[in-house]
Write a structure and sequence with these properties.
Elements lengths: L14 E3 L3 H10 L3 E3 L4 E3 L4 E3 L12 E6 L3 E3 L2 E4 L2 H11 L2 E7 L11 E4 L6 E4 L5 H9 L3 E4 L6 H6 L2
Parallel strand pairs: 1-2, 5-8, 8-10, 10-11
Antiparallel strand pairs: 3-4, 6-7, 7-9
């Protein structure tokens, strides 16, 4: 889900810290942004780099905005199902002024066993028009901003002619 915002970043020049290989590669080839990736083990299934030893680089990285995907969102908070991903995200959440969750509306129906953070740590959720009324109310009651993104042509598909 977070990769969907990357084509919209190519015209900006910024420092990007990501553990996602596809995001790093796309920005390296299509932008002038500085791209920083953490050291660690490559998890092929998720296409990310994670360190089971904590991230030294991450502990020194500050961001005005942190964009994060997740496996689920509920009244309890933002959820994930992999302890290493939780550890990686927790290392960064406290070092960003604003946490923005990018999650398709189905994630508001998913529940997993690991909570990354409570909803009060989230400033905004960006999702799609499939959002249910009860999910909208839950986010509003928690004081979370909501952006419902329209489906537009995928810039990557359009560029490749797919």
């Amino acid at each position: 889900t977070t990769f969907q915002m990357v084509p919209h970043l190519v015209s900006k020049r910024m420092a990007v810290f990501t553990n996602s290989f596809p995001i790093a590669e796309y920005l390296l080839h299509n932008s002038r942004s500085q791209v920083v990736i953490p050291g660690g083990t490559i998890y092929r299934e998720q296409n990310i780099v994670l360190s089971p030893f904590g991230g030294v680089v991450a502990s020194h990285f500050y961001a005005r905005k942190m964009f994060m995907g997740c496996r689920g969102i509920a009244a309890h908070g933002v959820m994930e199902n992999d302890p290493l991903i939780v550890q990686s995200e927790l290392a960064l959440i406290g070092q960003a002024d604003e946490l923005i969750i990018l999650a398709d509306s189905s994630k508001l129906r998913n529940r997993t066993s690991l909570i990354i953070c409570s909803l009060d740590a989230v400033s905004t959720v960006v999702t799609d028009a499939g959002l249910r009324d009860e999910d909208r109310k839950m986010l509003e009651n928690a004081g979370v901003g909501l952006i419902v993104a329209d489906r537009v042509a995928d810039p990557i598909e359009s560029a490749s002619g797919a």
